[in-house]
Write a structure and sequence with these properties.
The protein has 4 helices and 6 strands; from the N terminus they run ββββαβαβαα. With 139 residues, the protein is an alpha/beta fold. The chain is globular and about 40 Å long.
Length: 139
């Protein structure tokens, strides 16, 4: 069962997908948001169909104390719209540390700031999805 991971942003969406076995996540090309949310939802639904996705995981940006702020509420609403548009289950996954992990990994890899900026969203989506896959396998 292939799963799509999304790192939500107002300008870009980081995307990742799992392998068929649901063991390993890998990044997909960065998606720059369109003119409307409807366009984005249509393109994501099309991507899910093309990739054979059976489930979607969206990073949920909670505050450090675990409460939901403005962006987390926006992600929740987006996830509900995505669920309706695709007909697929959409899960929220706590993403509080993924951006820091992505940055640390890229700094350790000695990537330039420009290259890190280009890769950050896809790597964050990959970390979100991999965390979800690992948690599901452990359950």
């Amino acid at each position: 069962m292939r799963i799509l991971g999304i790192d939500y942003g107002r300008k870009r969406l980081g995307l990742a997908r799992s392998d068929e076995e649901g063991v390993l996540a890998s990044p997909l090309p960065l998606y720059t948001r369109g003119r409307s949310s409807d366009d984005d939802l249509d393109r994501l639904a099309d991507l899910a169909r093309r990739e054979g996705v059976a489930r979607i995981v969206v990073g949920w940006p909670l505050h450090m104390d675990g409460t939901e702020g403005e962006m987390a509420a926006e992600v929740r609403a987006f996830s509900e719209e995505l669920r309706t548009r695709t007909g697929l289950p959409v899960d929220l996954y706590d993403e509080r540390w993924t951006s820091a992990q992505a940055d640390a990994a890229m700094v350790a890899g000695d990537l330039s700031r420009r290259r890190r900026r280009q890769l950050r969203d896809g790597l964050s989506a990959t970390l979100i999805l991999q965390g979800f896959l690992d948690r599901e396998r452990a359950a």
